[in-house]
Amino acid sequence: MPMPVLIFLIGYLPFFLAAYWIYDMESVRKQAITAGAILSFDAAMLAIFGGILGWI
């Protein structure tokens, strides 16, 4: 598999799928909750892997 395809599948595709999923939600409240949950997860992983474990 060529490298650009792999980068697209691993890097870009999940982002675009999540963006489409959030955009198509029925209410702005659901969009905000879902986007906030994703942001909270990212912040928690950054704190764990960067701050506590020192990997970043």
Overview of this structure, please?
It is a multi-pass membrane protein. One of its GO terms (cellular component) is plasma membrane. Keywords: Cell membrane, Membrane, Transmembrane, Transmembrane helix. The chain has 2 helices and no strands. It is flat and about 40 Å long. It has one domain. The protein has helices at residues 3-23, 28-52. With 56 residues, the protein is an all-alpha fold.
Low-pLDDT runs of 5+ residues are: none
The biggest beta sheet reads: none
Percentage of residues in helical conformation: over 70%
Query: What is the distance, rounded to the nearest whole angstrom, between the alpha carbons of the first and last residues?
Result: 29 Å
Q: Helix tally?
A: 2
Keywords: Cell membrane, Membrane, Transmembrane, Transmembrane helix
Subcellular location: Cell membrane
Membrane topology: Multi-pass membrane protein
Write a concise synopsis of the structure shown.
One of its GO terms (cellular component) is plasma membrane. The chain is mostly helical.
Write the layout of secondary structure elements.
Layout: H1 3-23, H2 28-52
Which short descriptors sum up this protein?
2 helices; mainly alpha; flat
